[in-house]
Amino acid sequence: NNASYDDSTGRTDLALTQSILGVALGAEYSFHTRKSKFNPYIGAEFTMNIFAGKLVIDRTETTTYTMSSTVRYGIQFGAGADYVVHNNIGIVIGAKYAYANLFGKEFKEDVGTKYNLGDGEHELNGAVVPEKKITFLHFYGGISFYFGR
Predict the structure, then answer these.
(1) pLDDT at position 69, please?
(2) pTM score, two decimals?
């Protein structure tokens, strides 16, 4: 995300980059028969998500803040379909709903140019800030190959 703000003291440019590397272990159930062309499926997975990021603030001078790498555990559920276009090739499409920080939420104070994910409940200026839920929906598509069919 990039944003620029203008006020009476000048212009501020912000550039935020955040990423999640997810590793998942789960199960999938397919509703197909050996001869079917259309094969729907559902699945569920336990995930380990590694968060990282960087924030660059450019005002009169440039300051770069780096997110401390953070690990959170979550779950995701998905569904999709695989359509056979040839004996050994298919087209797959699907969607997954992920709750990336179901377990392990915490809040740590930021130090210097290092900042933290800060998804746990904490107090700020006398007010309680509730825990953050990191959820997202992603869609995918691709090609499938069948061996021994």
Answers:
(1) 93
(2) 0.81
